[in-house]
Structures are given as structure tokens and as C-alpha cells.
Amino acid sequence: xxxxxxxxxxxxxxxxxxxxxxxxxxxxxxxxxxxxxxxxxxxxxxxxxxxxxxxxxxxxxxxxxxxxxxxxxxxxxxxxxxxxxxxxxxxxxxxxxxxxxxxxxxxxxxxxxxxxxxxxxxxxxxxxxxxxxxxxxxxxxxxxxxxxxxxxxxxxxxxxxxxxxxxxxxxxxxxxxxxxxxxxxxxxxxxxxxxxxxxxxxxxx
Length: 205
Hints:
By secondary structure, this protein is of the alpha+beta class. It contains four helices and twelve strands.
């Protein structure tokens, strides 16, 4: 992948809590959402209750540009604590008008990642603490469903929530720990992944 492409994709990474997240866009309606590691959230909503309000899923001052303060609110669209994966979206546009505007201002002019499959071991990239890209090798872990392993580089604290890329720059996973990481084609909800992916899963033979 060319250096200019990597430099552009850097702008699709933002701060989420003590870690990072990255932007993707639904082709259907151009809605921009943030994918991150679930443990970057300060708390989880109470999932035991049968109903909840939008504000219970809304986080104050959770997002911000790289290197700047956290000042933008976000609403939780999806979370899987077991997979350590979360998706954030714009706060309610009726209840929190100014916060929705701030979210839109943060994400609207930035590039976005496309999401892809990682069917086998391949060259890739991860986002570093100095806001650059580190070359690595990405491999599915056969004994751990929906997990990726990262070889040939080191994962350190603070990288959580940042994207794991294939060589072509498409996102395939999320940094979560020093060893194993969520795999987007397995851990995102099926409908969400289907909307965002650039690959077509091969038909069974």
C-alpha cells in the first residue's frame, strides 16, 4: 500500500476514551459510525432490563481527534463484551442537538475504512501510539473462533480500539489485547458486516 494512502487512512482514526476507534460508513445512507474495542467504553448499559432510553446508551466526552481532548458525545449502537467490540454512532438528534452536531463535525470530512474478510494469513498494518502505521502479519487463529493474531510487531497499552488492516488498507479487526483481537467478519452483527464489507464470502461447494 502506498505511503499516501496510509497517511490518508490515519485521518479515519480518532480517540475513544483511553484508546482509539475508526470510522466506517454505510453505503446505503452514508451514516458514519465508530468501531472500537468495548473495553474503551467507561461503562456498559444495563442489558438485563427489557427496555432502556437512548440517554442510557450515550457517553459524554468520549470521542476526540487524535492528540486532542475528548469533547464529543456518542451513542452506543452495538456492544459485545465477550468479543470486546463496540460500535458508536451519533447521539439522538432530537434530545441532544448540539452533541449530535459536534459528532457530525468530528466525522463528516474524514476518510473512512472499508471492511473485508481475512480468510488466511496475510501482510497487514496496525496503528501505532505515535500515530503511524506498523507493518505486521495478520493471521486467523484456528483454535479461537473469531480471533486474529498479530505477528512481526508488538502491541502495547493505548493501542486498543485501533484498526487491524489487510495489506490493501481495508479493516479486518480491532486491537484488543497483546495477543488476540476481534475479527470484524465474525464479531460484527451479520447485517452490519454485510453492509460494510467489500468482499463477498465464497459460496460453499
